[in-house]
């Protein structure tokens, strides 16, 4: 991530690397808390300790689709890939 930050020239912009890492840490913490609360909710309301693991399969599938869609979009519009 640090190498990409410097390769894209973001060090010359107003975007600081410390802000990126700070936002990344905050978002990661928020997602972890949300996952814990939703997992507890599923266990309480479905009376199954397996429910959070089944729900994670759905989350992983949605995440994989979003990443793939974004990757294809970026790949098709990226000038660097066309130069290869």
Low-confidence parts, pLDDT < 50 over ≥5 residues? none
Shape: elongated
- Oligomer class: single chain
Which structural class fits the helix and strand makeup? mainly alpha
- How much of the sequence is in beta strands? under 5%
Question: What fraction, in percent, of the residue positions are helical?
Answer: over 70%
Write down the overall mean pLDDT: 86
Structural Rg: 19 Å
Number of helices: 4
Secondary-structure element pattern, one letter each = HHHH
CA distance, first residue to last residue: 22 Å
Number of strands: 0
Largest sheet: none
Count of domain modules: 1
What does the model show?
The protein is built from 4 helices and no strands. With 84 residues, it is an all-alpha fold. The chain has one domain. It is elongated, with a radius of gyration of 19 Å. The chain starts with a helix and ends with a helix.
């Amino acid at each position: 991530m640090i190498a990409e930050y410097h390769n894209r020239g973001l060090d010359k912009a107003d975007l600081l690397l410390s802000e990126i890492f700070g936002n990344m840490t905050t978002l990661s913490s928020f997602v972890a808390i949300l996952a814990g609360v939703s997992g507890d909710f599923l266990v309480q309301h479905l009376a199954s300790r397996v429910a959070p693991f089944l729900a994670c399969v759905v989350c992983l599938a949605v995440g994989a689709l979003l990443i793939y869609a974004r990757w294809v979009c970026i790949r098709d519009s990226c000038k660097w890939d066309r130069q290869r």
